[in-house]
Amino acid sequence: MKVLVTGGAGYIGTHTLLELLGCGHDVLVVDNYSNSSPIALQRVRKLAGRDFESLQIDIRDTEQLTEAMLEFQPQAVIHFAGLKAVGESVEQPLRYYSNNVDGSISLLLAMDKAAGHNFIFSSSATVYGAPQYLPYDEKHPVKAVNPYGSSKLMVEEILGDWCKSAPGTAAISLRYFNPVGAHTSGEIGEDPQGIPNNLMPCIAQTAVGRLPQLKVFGSDYDKRDGTGERDYIHVMDLARAHVAALDYLEQCNSFDAINIGTGKGLTVLELVKTFEQSSQQVIPLELVERRAGDLVSVYADASKASRLLNWSAELDVDAMCRDTWRWQSQNPQGYSGE
Ligand code: NAD
Ligand code: WQD
């Protein structure tokens, strides 16, 4: 299949590109490199042993996008491009709505012009808000609690309406839980700019000495060891889920949302302990106050993905930690170290 990948130079995009290329798909990457580096794409080319085109385009530039689409004629679009820092979205809501919502509308307009009708969207478990029950299944009510989450929900609504408006269009929204890990080569991985927001990059950067210690946000939750629980999913499993969703699009002619997680919760301290074992590094840590807005527990009911996509997570937490460590220890400064 010919697949246009927006945000393909980013963390999840690069890993998915490798999976797509490995399965024989042809790709065109569109990225403005606002949170990534073209070096990441060079590494994907090397690992895949195959070349592909990449264009520096902001997805809000409908004209340039349309031109690229008319030329490439993709049979499907995978839409990763977006801003993703929750705290930043609270401080700069308009930037988030412009990038994530206007950007998605611009992409759909370009698809309409190029008669594209198959779409996969990077959504997030954050659309569920606080749990009314656990695990979260796709029928759980949705409620955004910050502009980032609202932008994801708005795009899901837009995709629903887009699918209704034209027969033959299909869109799948993959609601990712907590992506972590890296490709086993250690050549590509997560490379956050500035101080990371998420737990795994904080652990990895502490292990490599870029951060002095890990701050554990809250140790008095009503959980087995008092720390927050999440459903961490290996990025290569997540990448495979996109390939499975591409196949499923062929039989789907409407909008659908599907959770992508393992279904298992892990606490902060459990993840740190596994990381220490796999990396043979000690992670100095300090137990601090709870982080505002954090939930105690988040994990998926991933049975819909298994039923519809014939996909389930295969890689365990040891692999998540081992592969993160390989990437971080081989690239202590991320791609900028090259
Ligand atoms: P990332 O920042 O590494 O990748 C996003 C890519 O999109 C970057 O390469 C960036 O340069 C590009 N981009 C951003 N705005 C753009 C624009 N206007 N035009 C063109 N390119 C643009 O993030 P990621 O972790 O790979 O996440 C990919 C997607 O998955 C995002 O939409 C994110 O919201 C979603 N998601 C991520 C997580 C997570 O924890 N990583 C969880 C749930 C959902
Ligand atoms: C995980 C756990 C923290 C950092 C966020 C977004 C969500 C989604 C995934 C995009 C929590 C604890 C963290 C640290 C810590 N992204 N923690 N010390 O909060 O589940 O979700 O990323 O869609 O929208 O909100 O992930 O990795 O930030 O936190 O103790 O330095 O680790 O309190 O319990 P979260 P996270």
Automatic annotation (TrEMBL):
InterPro entries for the chain: NAD(P)-bd_dom (IPR016040), NAD(P)-bd_dom_sf (IPR036291), UDP_G4E (IPR005886)
GO molecular function: UDP-glucose 4-epimerase activity
Gene3D superfamilies (UniProt xref): NAD(P)-binding Rossmann-like Domain (3.40.50.720), UDP-galactose 4-epimerase, domain 1 (3.90.25.10)
Family annotation (Pfam families): GDP_Man_Dehyd
Catalysed reactions listed for this entry: UDP-alpha-D-glucose = UDP-alpha-D-galactose
Domain NAD(P)-binding, chain residue ranges per copy: 4-324
CDD domains named in the record: UDP_G4E_1_SDR_e (cd05247)
Record's keyword terms, sorted: Carbohydrate metabolism, Isomerase, NAD
Cofactor: NAD(+)
EC number: 5.1.3.2
GO CC terms, sorted: cytosol
UniProt pathway annotation: Carbohydrate metabolism; galactose metabolism
Coiled-coil blocks: none
One of the GO biological process terms: galactose metabolic process
Subunit details: Homodimer.
Homology family: Belongs to the NAD(P)-dependent epimerase/dehydratase family.
Protein known as: UDP-glucose 4-epimerase
